[in-house]
Specification:
The complex is a heterotrimer of chains A (294), B (208) and C (211).
Chain A lengths: L6 H4 L3 E4 L9 E6 L2 E7 L5 E6 L5 E5 L1 E4 L2 E4 L20 E3 L3 E4 L3 H9 L4 H4 L16 E5 L4 E11 L4 H6 L3 E11 L2 E7 L7 E12 L2 E5 L2 E3 L6 H19 L21 H13 L12
Antiparallel strand pairs in A: 1-7, 2-3, 3-4, 4-5, 6-7, 8-16, 9-15, 10-11, 11-12, 12-13, 13-14, 14-15, 14-16
Chain B lengths: L2 E5 L4 H12 L4 E5 L11 H6 L7 E4 L2 E4 L1 H12 L11 H15 L19 H23 L12 H12 L11 H11 L15
Helix pairs in contact in B: 1-3, 1-6, 4-6, 5-7
Chain C lengths: L7 E5 L8 E6 L2 E7 L5 E5 L13 E3 L2 E3 L6 E2 L5 E3 L16 E2 L1 E4 L2 E4 L14 E8 L3 H12 L3 E4 L2 E4 L4 E9 L2 E8 L4 H22 L1
Antiparallel strand pairs in C: 1-11, 2-3, 3-4, 4-9, 5-6, 6-7, 7-8, 10-11, 12-16, 13-14, 14-15, 15-16
């Protein structure tokens, strides 16, 4: 496979590993946008990254930075800066990541699923939604020109068990969400935190596209929770992610179509409509069905 | 002292045990293990409990067991007075169940295993082929059973053979094996999901 | 939606139970084959018009199919009845799943190119077995009689044994994959079981031959 010629896609930072995946004095090979790359950690614990040639020899160095407890790299010149997410610097938050999960579909499908609330009661039944309360109330989308981000705000959805502690009480509540599209293939949500009135958990989804229809997903979180154990939190997030995986791998076509009549949105898909429009205006082609192919 | 299960939510083998405990409506304590990304099952504290570094582990008082098939047999034998999940009076039925437990613990593993969460694992063609072969053998068995008027792998009612085979068969769809060529397997999975007290797990579609 | 010049058998009627939906592949295209609780079989394109989710992962409520992703509910004619996210919204009539007409005969379900209302009674036909192969349909057809030791004659869209007691339908899944669905009018379970067992053996033999 050749690396994409889509300049918008090339000029982004992508997650490529968690720091602890590269042991001291060893290497870790992976793929980014069809380009094989190698991460190496030297005896001073410094990490470097290279493109790999077909014979596995190391070619040009590529940059590597660590943010949100995750290593990012890029194949493009002057990439769009990584986002500012203030919650990761707040002292009373727990920074947790729950591994990287492979999903064999387009990164666009994965972002769109992350933005979607209407599936909560069918895919995350009794966890994020209840089958009796499927309604998506109206919300707004905003474009933030200073950061070139799309936001979906004033989102709310009835949640039967927001956390382990709430599950025990058997009650539900309206959970409040804001979504933030950080780049073509990364997105985050703010979700009202239990027992912390007015504050929100920050949950990110950074996607490493191995190819147009094969991705690794990284989910660093900065959360407010002084009840659950780390293992409980990881279990909760992983379960939700794997439930979405069944959907994501069975959407057809895998490349997301942008032509108007190929998929029919409804009011609940306002954020998806804004995302698709923004991808188009940003010149993204990667992960999208070409117009001729539709 | 009650039952204690060392568990990881996305492990098909732990799920087998949760299924049977659920069918029998038994109370048990869950010890969550950070299998991924923490690899807690490879740490010294866990290796003290199971030197093989594998989940699940069941503790019942002073009894400590590894291997999901062995655990299913133990729970059925000790806690199912009707002996319907493991009919042990009938030599043929009992050994046929053992045969399918071994199939679940060996051949069927290729169909899904814990690749659900191993992000770096590639789904190699030979493994997928092995998985397909195992599913074909299971589908053949279920086709015969269906012609005899029965829905289950052995006998007239569900047994631990069905429990042992269900997770990897169902999860194989998630790891990239289409079930289009296994009509009897699909009908059996639907029947299984419709059993009273059935519990689902992530990776298996909720609705039946 | 018309895709096939020849009717294609897609399953044994008896394997598709009321209230269940199954994935079917025909000429490399994915379909959802389902039967309502009224017993009527339907073959739909395996794709929800909303976000492309495969409908074969959905679930049946009465005689409607619901998509697993967002619970969109489709009537048996393919039109959308309900969008749960918007309980008060009347879905536009243009919102519709692509459907293919099917008929049932000889104990098999067929995808046909036009709606034939007259489905001959199928109740005297019992399922024997469906087998799935990773090689072209021609390989099966050319070896059918040799393998089965039953003399089959092509009769329109089906192969019938000389004594009219066995029927075989073929399904082109792709240029390199096919399936064979066999039914019988024999009422004896013994005969059906023996034939099904022999079919599994044919699968081993023909797989060796084609290799």
């Amino acid at each position: 496979m050749t690396v994409t010629s889509d300049m918008t896609t090339l000029r982004q930072w992508y997650p490529v590993a968690y720091p602890n995946q590269i042991r001291p004095e060893s290497t870790y090979d992976t793929t980014l946008l069809d380009q094989r790359i190698r991460l190496s950690r030297d005896d001073h614990s410094q990490i470097t990254a290279h493109r790999l040639a077909d014979d596995n020899s190391e070619m040009a160095t590529i940059p590597i930075v660590q943010r949100f407890d995750t290593l990012f790299s890029t194949l493009g010149d002057s990439p769009r800066p990584l986002p500012q997410i203030a919650e990761f610097s707040e002292d009373d938050r727990r920074i947790i990541h729950c591994g990287s999960f492979r999903v064999r579909t387009s990164p666009c499908r994965i972002v769109e699923n992350f933005l979607d609330m209407a599936h909560f009661c069918f895919v995350h039944t009794d966890v994020l939604g209840s089958i009796d309360r499927p309604e998506v109330l109206s919300y707004k989308t905003e474009y933030h020109p200073e950061t070139d981000e799309i936001w979906a705000v004033d989102c709310q959805f009835f949640q039967p068990t927001a956390s382990k502690s709430a599950a025990a009480s058997g009650q539900g509540l309206m959970a409040h969400y804001s979504y933030r599209i950080l780049s073509p293939f990364s997105v985050m949500l703010y979700k009202s935190a239990m027992n912390f009135a007015g504050r929100f958990d920050a949950i990110c989804l950074f996607i490493q596209p191995l190819s147009e229809t094969d991705c690794l997903c990284y989910m660093p979180m900065a959360i407010l929770d002084n009840v659950s154990t780390k293992t409980d939190i990881i279990d909760f997030q992983q379960s939700i992610f794997v439930q979405d995986g069944i959907i994501l791998e069975n959407q057809r076509p895998k490349l997301m179509p942008l032509t108007p009549r190929s998929e029919t949105p409804t009011r609940a898909d306002l954020s998806s409509i804004a995302y698709r429009r923004w991808l188009k205006s940003s010149g993204v082609r990667f992960g999208l069905q070409s117009v001729e192919g539709s | 002292m009650g039952l204690k299960l060392y568990n990881y939510g996305l492990s098909g083998n732990c799920y087998k045990v949760r299924l049977l405990l659920g069918f029998l409506k038994l109370d048990y304590e869950i010890v969550p293990v950070d299998f991924y990304p923490g690899l807690e099952h490879k740490q010294p504290d866990f290796l003290d409990i199971n030197p093989l570094g594998q989940l699940p582990i069941l503790e019942d008082g002073r009894v400590r067991l590894r291997d999901s098939q062995a655990i299913l047999s133990y729970i059925a034998k000790k806690y199912d007075p009707s002996a319907s999940w493991l009919p042990d009076r009938d030599a043929t039925k009992f050994s046929q169940i053992m045969m399918w437990l071994a199939f679940a613990g060996n051949n069927l593993v290729a169909a899904a295993a814990d690749r659900l969460v191993d992000s770096s694992a590639t789904f190699s063609a030979p493994e997928i082929d092995k998985g397909r072969q195992a599913l074909t053998i299971l589908d053949d068995q279920l086709a015969e059973r269906s012609m005899m008027g029965h829905s289950w792998i052995v006998g007239e009612t569900p047994t631990i053979a069905d429990i042992a085979c269900f997770p990897d068969a169902a999860l194989s769809n998630y790891v990239g094996i289409d079930h289009e060529a296994f009509p009897h397997l699909r009908n059996w999975m639907r029947d299984f999901r419709r059993l009273p007290n059935f519990l689902t797990m992530p990776g298996i579609p909720e609705f039946a | 939606m018309t895709l096939f010049r020849q009717p294609q058998s897609v399953a044994l009627s008896g394997n598709i139970r009321p209230g269940d939906v199954h994935p079917v592949i025909l000429h490399e295209k994915e379909f959802a084959l389902w039967r309502g609780n009224d017993g009527v079989a339907h073959l739909w394109r395996d794709r929800c018009p909303h976000r492309g989710m495969r409908l074969s992962f959905g679930f049946i409520r009465e005689n409607h199919l619901k998509c697993l992703y967002h619970g969109w509910e489709f009537r048996s004619d393919g039109s959308c009845q309900k969008i749960p996210a918007h309980p008060d919204l009347e879905p536009p009539t243009t919102l519709c799943v692509d459907t293919l007409p099917v008929i049932e005969k000889f104990g098999l379900i067929f995808a046909v190119s036009d709606t034939q209302k007259s489905s001959p009674s199928t109740h005297q036909w019992q399922p024997v077995r469906s087998l799935f192969f990773d090689f072209p349909q021609e390989d099966i057809v050319s070896k059918l009689n040799q393998l089965t030791a039953i003399s089959f004659e092509e009769s329109g869209d089906i192969y019938l044994s000389d004594d009219q007691m066995f029927a075989c339908g073929l399904q082109t899944r792709s240029g390199r994959q096919c399936a064979l669905h066999m039914s019988t009018r024999h009422r004896s379970r013994r005969i059906r079981l023996d034939t099904a067992r022999r079919m599994v053996r044919w699968r081993h033999v023909i797989t060796e031959m084609v290799k």
